[in-house]
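Handoff note, outgoing to incoming analyst
You'll be picking up this chain. Sequence as last confirmed:
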Amino acid sequence: MIKRRRKSFERAYSLLDELCKSHLTIRNAVYTTSQQLQPLKSLQKLLIKEITRAERKIRRSKSILRTCDTAQAQEASTALQERIEQYRHLAYTWRCFGDAIAFLFMDKFALKQTLFNTHNVNAKQDAGFIADKEGLSKEWSIMENLLDKGIPALLTDITNTIRHGDVCIMIGPDPHLIEIKSGKFDGRGRRQRNSIRELLNFFETDEAEGLRGFEKIRRITHDTSEVVYVDAMNDCIREAMRSGTAWRSPEEGLYYVAITAGDVSIENILVELGVTQPMAFSLNEVKARRAWSPYSPFTLSIRNCRALFGFIWGEIYIAVFYEPDALQRLAECRGYKLEFQPSESEIAFELTRLGDGRQIRVASQMFFRLAFDFTSPAWILCVAIENLNRHEIMV
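Most recent structure output, in case you need it:
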């Protein structure tokens, strides 16, 4: 369906590109003008328009579907259901542009916390249709007022990741969430307010008890700067757009594969690479399941308009493969034993220091950043070792 919205897509990409070029200036400026934030306002206005349009299409299709009786052809009913799913995916894709704004201005590890409930590890239910919100005009007015004062702000409902609050002020690495209510807080409103307070307290103090169901969480700055291979992935995509297929291996055991030709076999590529039993991550599949959060959105990682459009529409296939024994060898060289856990586990691997048997577990959600954030697996191991030395647990 986004093919029919090509002009809007190109406009969204253009505005996002403007923000990518200017966000460091905005973040580091002592004073920011409203003019500097105009692309931020324009992009949010466009996203609201496109998301609510997709929502209207969903509602209209559902209305037609309800009128279908058993005498009508099953084929027509199936077509309507497919159309509804396509519009849902379209709305999700527009919100990926909203995610790009958030991840551009704020820290991705902090943003992860805004996806989940504060009382358990489950993702918080999304807000539903924007068009149904009575307070949308007030939220927009407050957000617009902040932008006019030179304060970067974002409507949370145009993102997939930020599920707390209505408006997010984007000053500094941590999100500052604001809940906007027209009247008195009811039970639900008080729970939402209390959840925001828990998150803001965690961001301020770097620790919390009971957050997301954990007994205690502490946030510690990594000693080593994160290593990411986004450039290698984009280089791989560019070559695939020219030749039909391409691969890159920026680190031992790590392979990026991009395919635009329809007659290319993944199995043949793996044979060519000499890879036999890798962990496999199909980025297209995760996108199709609308399950990308809480990772950096593909709308921010893929840095070419035509390539991004091709990935969204399924014309470009992208996969990440990783040979786990590469990380085990690296751990052993550093004096540790690394044991991967079953694929369905919430724990990716256990790391044991050979000298004293001290252990640390690394969550799958952290480890999977190698595929969706294009993070170096060696860096993830390095951070695990840092945290083990600090007696911390990575969650």
